[in-house]
User: What shape does this take?
Amino acid sequence: MKQIHIGILGLGTVGTGIARLLAENGELISSRLGAELHLKKAADLDIERDRGIDFAPGVLTTDPYAVVNDPEIDIVLEMIGGMDIARELIMKGIENGKHIVTANKALLATRGNEIVGRAAQKGLSLAFEASVGGCMPIIKTIRESLVGNNIHAVTGILNGTCNYILTRIAGEGISFEAALEMAKAEGYAEANPSLDVDGYDTAHKLAILSAIAFGMKINYEDVYIEGIAALTPMDIEFAAQCGYRIKLLAITKSDGKSVEARVHPAMIPFTDLLSNVSGSMNAVTVTADAVGDMILYGHGAGMMPTASAAIGDVVDIARCIVAGGAMRVPMLGYQMEHIREIPIKPMDEIETHYYFRFSALDKPGVLARIAGILGEHDISIKFVHQTKRRTNGAVPVYMLTHQAREAQVKQALDKIAEFDFIPERPVLIRIEAPEEQKSGQGE
Amino acid sequence: MKQIHIGILGLGTVGTGIARLLAENGELISSRLGAELHLKKAADLDIERDRGIDFAPGVLTTDPYAVVNDPEIDIVLEMIGGMDIARELIMKGIENGKHIVTANKALLATRGNEIVGRAAQKGLSLAFEASVGGCMPIIKTIRESLVGNNIHAVTGILNGTCNYILTRIAGEGISFEAALEMAKAEGYAEANPSLDVDGYDTAHKLAILSAIAFGMKINYEDVYIEGIAALTPMDIEFAAQCGYRIKLLAITKSDGKSVEARVHPAMIPFTDLLSNVSGSMNAVTVTADAVGDMILYGHGAGMMPTASAAIGDVVDIARCIVAGGAMRVPMLGYQMEHIREIPIKPMDEIETHYYFRFSALDKPGVLARIAGILGEHDISIKFVHQTKRRTNGAVPVYMLTHQAREAQVKQALDKIAEFDFIPERPVLIRIEAPEEQKSGQGE
Assistant: This one.
């Protein structure tokens, strides 16, 4: 049986998962692939630790260049993470004619165009299913299954840490800080959680999805990013009373001319399946002209789900090697000459629905003054709720709006914040209502 | 740009959708594929009807053999449906060296092994993503994305007509017959709805999924099939009170030795996302060793979603042609020599949880007699509810059981049915509780 030689860079959680999957399910994979995936080398700084895997003699090495320079190795799996060293090793592998599989979303989001460009020049594959949504085959689905579709939007819960925290706040009415501590205790959050809770990780993934959905260069710089640290149980509870859950969403949409790409907390109606995604699970909705709405749901991270995605990529590449064919699916979904620089719309030009919470001193005429400012900015109110529950002498006023423009909303809130009866900065949460089905209807 | 020549057999709903997608999104598809999909011929008995598509001169023909015998055509899309003629045309196409794309689940379920075998001998592809779950890429996900996984179970809502009917019964408390009439009026059900409501269509799809999930020959003969016609609003309402919805499920599981394959109404807890799939939508959960649970959700039928799936298959094949490589992914997911005859477990050997409803005359000691029989058959009761609501002089007794064996359950119900205080045949609905996660856990 033909052998495909594999090298792994980094035996952390995911790298170890890949080695384990190759060891445990190798025979099964061969019966599907018709070739053997042979782990030739695996590099890590620590090759002494017992990872519960019987590596063959000579496989383990502390020298990553022993992997990327090995003339026999066909496919290199970069599972080190981080930026400079990972990039250098990937580029070296490409120069040496290796196909690359990676889960490194931060690197792809920021240096992906350069790396993909070089791989394409050399006729090599760089595959990255494991970089977005763990085991969910979102990259494959967009690039292959939906190849006949104009994609209108991709909307996802792409960070398990944030979703876990939001689920705990909603379930137990605790603060963000308390939920974050629980997430750390459960192993869902890092000691420095900023990459997750401030939305950067989600934005890395979104930049990749925007590119493959719309045939544009990867553009992380222009993604709007807002994290979940400012969310309060008060807002989450009021959202629930109105039939919404709050999730950290990655949203990218195209109207055929420009693209929206934004990461922020959003209220989603209970009727949308995404609002029912709880704990550390991930899910993503793709809206496209032929299929309407399609949803994928699964473990967005973790050792074995991510390893599974990487092995899927390895087998895709191995099948091309076995068949003697060239790179089959273009890395970013489109032929390189069709990938354009499509501008991402400035956040000010976004139009959506909004939730506001004002802390207002309880005086007559307050609501009229707020409503007046909103009206002047073309913001039409759908729903208002004033309670008598006092916080620091003020009462909360909740509002839901019809569709409004972000720039107008910001200006209006700035003006409202200046009123002396508004002691705190108003809270704004965007509402992501399911769009009317554009197509995909039928029996 | 290289041209790939395509022929369509049958311009019904899906065939027309494919022609429309090629016309409307052809340029987009080319920018992704790097080749042009050229519709060379399309055959239908009626080529006069206006389908809203500008076919080039000479494309339309009433002779299907003009398609399968055209020496230039690379890929034939069989969208006629039905058995004998479809099979004959597919086999003729294969003999002539054409790759085949089909949505014909009935044909695949019953004659798939023969057809796939012949295509494999000739080194050709036969692709059938459109046959199961409409636009949901369940075939691709199992065969490609989950290639590194031992698959434990596939559980799906695969028939939109049934799900629409069950959603209406649950929402409005109407009878099956009334909901079926609504489904007909809305275009969700055929004049003769048996194929859908009696579970055959779901079973066709399940037979295909079992094969690719477990590396077994397609075996439709041994799938257990029970439809939804006997379900009553009474059972659906009681299920809801206990936190369950009733769905027509396709269930296939493997313990590594034997396989379960069954289609029947099942109670699913609200906490399972499948229970929230309403209307004509489809969804399927795959449970596998590395990824844990993964769910796909989307339109399971309809013109454009099904056309989208077929075009995905066409492009997969076209990419292999463009790359000059051979058939890349084996048709049934495994190399032909690894496909085994795995027996499907007889229904009597299944173990699951059960819901029973007994109509009992309201006399003392009734419950003790029923419970006695169940106990004798090793059926342990989890929950009992007796109401005073009389129907034809009898009161309903509801029960939920712990795990029990189907053969014992049937014997027990037969005995209970003999009691003179049980005027009607007891009702049985199986409960599909989410299994404990076997793996796929992690951050």
Notes: The first strand of chain B starts at residue 3 and ends at 9. Chain B has 13 helices and 17 strands. Chain B touches chain A through 77 residues (CB under 8 Å).
